[in-house]
């Protein structure tokens, strides 16, 4: 007999039980994560693995008064119905989910298309629900689109470029379905998506991990697709850093928001896709050995660079504040010549004594100190963040809950820019006004990434609290795309209703919280070969 108690919130000697399996009469152990204090003097709260016997739990179960099963929230059924309504079929087979099913909006724009990044939470929801076929169809069709000739005006894009989105065109007279892909030529600003290829590789690995089916990833077509993406990213140029140089608007933040250069979102996704590619590529396949060696070399350089130069906590902020400038030679401490006077005033109050995060961007004489949620959550899932850094990121979220979560999870970035800075950075973008859209807006889709990061770091209370906030509003507000305001209190002024990834993000968060084993699809364990530069973040000292 097998009993699965999903994420039972049970306390046994200060231990948070995450998942339990009792098999036959064997004395199985409970794999759990510590959610209390490591030392007797209560100085640190570091994620810690513990082992508890089944007998120990049963002895304490009466006193816990905690139920060991979940009643499904009424919102879950409605969310599944809404997600299925967004499905689009190609020649009779489900292929993806469109961005939004909003009949109240006059203009459809491109919300009737299947976006690669938007489909990821939908794909994870279907995988977790035991419906992998739609994900397989999506992976194969987008791989087919990768092989198309890609042009913007007279310029030809690289072979590895994946589409930002595609649309299924139906001809009722001929009874024929065709695909139309957008590689950036129709996007606002005409920017190609740098993240599409990364999400495709990450999703292929999630499919493989979920189904146990390695045959799809090992097909010559998929192996070639991975190689093309990797070759495009690893191409040699004039770069002096292992990070990936990008244009503004090349990722989830797809409008001008000052993220040009080396944005944390792209670097974290790049790192995760490199690690996933290394797991998916067959060493014996032609052309793979060389690319795998290049991936390993890049991973070591990238992890060092990110953990050293992008990480910011109280101690590091104080160091930057005291930096000397105009230093020459390899002995320079201020390697990027960051001017201390460029540190924004808000940061000194925002930075807690305990906590830290990866800053938004680092390049010569420029450090973007803004917090970006997606990049930091992916850094935790990819193990780009060390365990200490991952814990510090969660500490920051707890310490600055009102700023980063507010009344609706989760701020896409913090803080908002306004006034003269807004004019210069966004080009007076009327959609990205302060505390709206990408400029400090709150995006419900990000709750799945937050929940995954919480599970990995053993901080389930944060996830539960955030999900409770979302459940109180999302259905009542018709699943909006984003919320406005410093606290995320108002439905976004141009937000689409019935936004698919808001729906899917909620479902994925709920399913992961009920069965944390789903985390394995989108989480990578720390690679011991990449020795962390920071043995313990300064934010963990007292």
UniProtKB/TrEMBL annotation:
Q: Does the keyword Hydrolase apply?
A: yes
Q: Which reaction does it catalyse?
A: Hydrolysis of terminal non-reducing beta-D-fructofuranoside residues in beta-D-fructofuranosides
Its Enzyme Commission number(s) read 3.2.1.26
Provide the alphabetized UniProt keywords: Carbohydrate metabolism, Glycosidase, Hydrolase
Q: Kindly give the Gene3D superfamilies that the UniProt entry links to this protein.
A: 1.50.10.10
Q: Name one GO biological process term.
A: sucrose catabolic process
- Pfam families recorded: Glyco_hydro_100
Query: Is-annotated flag, keyword Hydrolase?
Result: yes
Q: Please tell me which top-level EC class this enzyme sits in.
A: hydrolase
What's one GO MF term for it? sucrose alpha-glucosidase activity
Free-text function comment from the UniProt entry: Invertase that cleaves sucrose into glucose and fructose.
Family listed: Belongs to the glycosyl hydrolase 100 family.
Instruction: Give the protein name, as stated in the record.
Output: Alkaline/neutral invertase
Organism, as annotated: Triticum urartu (Red wild einkorn)
């Amino acid at each position: 007999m097998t009993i699965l108690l999903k994420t039972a919130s049970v306390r046994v000697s200060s231990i948070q039980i995450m998942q339990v399996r009792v098999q036959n009469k064997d004395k199985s152990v409970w794999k759990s994560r510590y959610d209390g204090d490591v030392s007797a003097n209560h100085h640190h709260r570091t994620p810690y693995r513990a082992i508890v016997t089944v007998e120990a739990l049963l002895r304490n179960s009466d006193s816990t008064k905690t139920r060991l099963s979940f009643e499904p929230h009424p919102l879950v059924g409605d969310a599944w119905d809404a997600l299925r309504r967004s499905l689009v079929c190609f020649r009779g087979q489900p292929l993806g989910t469109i961005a939004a099913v909003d009949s109240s909006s006059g203009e459809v724009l491109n919300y009737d298309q299947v976006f690669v990044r938007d489909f990821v939470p939908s794909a994870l929801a279907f995988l977790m629900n035991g419906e992998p076929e739609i994900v397989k169809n999506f992976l194969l069709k987008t791989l087919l689109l990768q092989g198309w000739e890609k042009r913007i005006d007279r310029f030809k894009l690289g072979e590895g470029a994946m589409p930002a989105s595609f649309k299924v065109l139906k001809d009722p007279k001929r009874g024929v379905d065709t695909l139309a892909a957008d590689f950036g030529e129709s996007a606002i600003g005409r920017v190609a998506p740098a993240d599409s290829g990364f999400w495709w590789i990450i999703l292929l690995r999630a499919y493989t991990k979920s189904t146990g089916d390695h045959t799809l990833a090992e097909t010559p077509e998929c192996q070639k697709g991975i190689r093309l993406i990797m070759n495009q990213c690893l191409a040699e140029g004039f770069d002096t850093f292992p990070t990936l140089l990008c244009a503004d608007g090349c990722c989830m933040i797809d409008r001008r928001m000052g993220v040009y250069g080396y944005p944390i979102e792209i670097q974290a996704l790049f790192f995760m896709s490199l690690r996933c590619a290394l797991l998916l590529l067959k060493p014996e396949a032609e052309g793979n050995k060389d690319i795998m060696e290049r991936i390993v070399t890049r991973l070591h350089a990238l992890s060092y660079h990110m953990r050293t130069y992008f990480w910011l906590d109280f101690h590091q902020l104080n160091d930057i504040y005291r930096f000397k400038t105009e230093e020459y030679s390899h002995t320079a401490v201020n390697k990027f010549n960051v001017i201390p006077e460029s540190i924004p005033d808000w940061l000194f109050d925002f930075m807690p004594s305990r906590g830290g995060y990866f800053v938004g961007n680092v390049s010569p004489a420029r450090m973007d100190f803004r917090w970006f949620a997606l990049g930091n959550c992916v850094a935790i899932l990819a193990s780009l963040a060390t365990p200490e850094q991952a814990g510090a990121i969660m500490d920051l979220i707890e310490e600055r809950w009102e700023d980063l979560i507010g009344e609706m999870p989760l701020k896409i970035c913090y803080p908002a820019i306004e006034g003269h800075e807004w004019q210069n950075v966004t080009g007076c973008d009327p959609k990205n006004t302060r505390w709206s859209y990408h400029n400090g807006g709150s995006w419900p889709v990000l709750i799945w990434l937050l929940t995954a990061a919480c599970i990995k770091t053993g901080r389930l209370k944060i996830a539960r609290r955030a999900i409770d906030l979302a459940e109180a509003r999302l259905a009542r507000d018709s699943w909006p795309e984003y919320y406005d305001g410093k606290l995320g209190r108002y439905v976004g002024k141009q937000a689409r209703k019935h936004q698919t990834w808001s729906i899917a993000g909620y479902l994925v968060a709920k399913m992961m919280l009920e069965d944390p084993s789903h985390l394995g699809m989108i989480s990578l364990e720390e690679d011991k070969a990449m020795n962390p530069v920071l043995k313990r973040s300064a934010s963990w000292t007292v």
